[in-house]
Design brief:
Elements: E1 28-35, H1 39-50, E2 55-58, E3 74-75, H2 83-115, E4 127-131, H3 136-149, E5 154-157, H4 159-164, E6 173-177, E7 181-182, H5 185-198, E8 202-204, E9 211-213, E10 218-222, E11 225-234, E12 251-260, H6 265-271, E13 278-281, E14 287-291, E15 297-305, H7 318-331, E16 340-350, E17 357-361, E18 367-371, H8 377-393, H9 400-403, H10 415-439
Parallel strand pairs: 1-2, 1-11, 2-8, 4-13, 11-18
Antiparallel strand pairs: 3-7, 4-6, 5-6, 9-10, 10-11, 12-15, 12-16, 13-14, 14-15, 17-18
Helix pairs in contact: 1-5, 1-8, 2-3, 2-8
């Protein structure tokens, strides 16, 4: 029998707000109704309020209770799987536009944090894709070259430079993404929520949208009343299928994370890592690690779960917890005495081509959607929220074109499930081989 793991239902980054907003209990009219109170929905709401638009946000639980309050906190310009793959799929022109979009998304998020004075422990440390075996060095060096050719601000870090930067010894070489860094995602989304409320957004929490009815005016139906609006925004990311619209855009994948107990001064000294760069490994299914402002080390990923029919896979996942704790122990042997204090996780929204789905639909072209951030949504969901606002206002956002393409849906079941199993198994075999090679070093 597996050991009991210390499991947090939502995430240790945030707790239920001290000022929960009421559930909708009557019919309302608004200019825009937004479904989902994560980064996308709140960012769209803030941008619309700045233009004087009357906005209602409907959130089934509380704002931030989705991926936005649960994630690992790497503010990253990563787009697609990686840039060499993005280049192969989309060609030079679009891949360069996507790099510009992703860079601008990081910059925009930094501006949002600053403008709204959100205290979210943001450290502009950059993030490193780290190689763990000498075989990763040539691949990463080439990836850095490709990325630079597309205009990305990245740099290959040879083993000597990794050591000079004082990075933990398991991480041999890397590609430094110079833009971005790490933040506390719970504080970031709580700050957006507070800013939206200050700006006059009408927020209803504990309010599940059961369906959206098309028309010149769109109607969002909830158990306590309906909101009728000129425009609706779908900002439900991994949960979208359950709304009954755009059901095959996004496959929800469960990703698990851990956090250690606070490290002592002596343990932090032994660890090094003075630049506090975020780290993701060069595995096919990456591991991620970072330090927090409250003195803990957090990380995870590595194992992703898909459930038949895009149902949400359950949260308590001993197999995943075991794998991520093992990875932590292997990468940080100097922290053997440190206990893991929390495990938790959330659902990322995966799209077929690993790019966000952004656009407008409905019989009257007034149902706008921004979903499917593929695990990179801190920056991209914030940016897409602002792009949704511009789309509603009838303005062309400079980065909208980068995401305009023929949108692809996941195949129906059982193909989707079979495909997910095959891909997962394939990646796990490659990563298991890599891990065996690393252990032999
Ligand atoms: C474990 C994990 C680690 C991650 N790590 C990173 C990272 O390090 N860096 C990064 O950039 N990204 C990361 N991500 C991805 C990032 O968190 C997401 O891309 C981002 O939060 C998406 O924001 P969102 O607002 O679109 O979705 P969400 O935050 O999920 O918000 C959607 C909201 O809609 C609500 N909702 C759903 N259905 C309904 C309905 N019918 N009615 C009313 N409300 C509804 C939900 O309750 C939820 O609050 C990670 C995600 C996970 C799960």
């Amino acid at each position: 029998m597996s050991k009991p793991y210390p499991f947090v239902e939502t995430s240790p980054w945030l707790s239920t707000p001290s000022d929960p907003q009421p559930a909708l209990d009557r019919d309302l009219a608004a200019d825009v109704v937004i479904i989902g109170g994560g980064y996308t929905g709140l960012s769209a709401a803030l941008s619309l309020r700045a233009a004087g638009v009357d906005v209602v946000v409907l959130e089934k639980d509380f704002s931030g209770s989705g991926a936005s309050g649960r994630n690992a906190g790497h503010l990253t310009p990563t787009i697609g799987k990686d840039l060499p793959t993005t280049l192969r799929i989309f060609g030079q022109k679009r891949a360069s536009a996507l790099v510009r979009f992703a860079d601008a998304a990081v910059e925009f998020t930094e501006e949002v944090i600053e403008k709204n004075q959100i205290d979210c422990d943001y450290v502009a440390s950059g993030n490193i894709v780290a190689g763990l075996h000498p075989k990763h060095a040539p691949t990463l060096e080439k990836a850095a070259q490709t990325a630079r050719g597309l205009g990305a601000e990245v740099r290959y870090l040879a083993p000597g430079e990794m050591r000079e930067r004082g990075l933990p010894p398991a991480f041999l070489c890397g590609v430094l993404e110079e833009r971005g860094g790490t933040l506390n995602p719970g504080r970031y989304v709580a700050g957006l929520r507070a800013a939206a409320m200050r700006a006059g957004v009408r927020l209803f929490e504990g309010t599940s949208v059961l369906g959206l009815d098309d028309g010149e005016k769109v109607t969002a139906r909830t158990p306590g009343g309906n909101v009728t609006a000129n425009h609706a925004v779908i900002a439900t990311n991994a949960y979208t299928k359950h709304l009954g619209r755009r059901k095959r855009d996004v496959a929800p994948l469960r990703v698990s994370l851990f956090e250690t107990e606070p490290l002592s001064e002596a343990q932090l000294d032994e660890l090094g890592w003075p630049g506090r760069e975020g780290i993701y490994t060069a595995h096919e299914a990456l591991e991620n690690f970072r330090l927090t402002a409250h003195g803990t080390l957090t990380g995870g990923s590595k194992v992703v779960r898909y459930r038949y029919g895009s149902a949400l896979p359950p949260g308590y996942d001993p197999g995943a917890f075991d794998a991520i704790e093992r990875a932590f122990r292997e990468r940080f042997p100097m922290l053997t005495d440190v206990k893991v204090a929390n495990f938790w996780g959330g659902w990322i929204g995966l799209t077929m081509d690993l790019l966000p789905q952004f656009g407008v639909e409905g019989s009257h072209h007034n149902v706008h959607f921004g979903i499917g951030f593929n695990g990179h949504g801190i920056a991209q969901a914030t940016q897409v929220g602002a792009m949704l606002a511009e789309q509603i206002l009838g303005n062309a956002h400079p980065h909208s074109r980068a995401l305009k393409r023929k949108l692809r849906s996941w195949p129906p079941e059982p193909l989707r499930w079979l495909g997910a199993q095959a891909i997962n198994r394939g990646l796990a075999i490659v990563d298991a081989r890599t891990d065996r090679q690393i252990r032999k070093l």
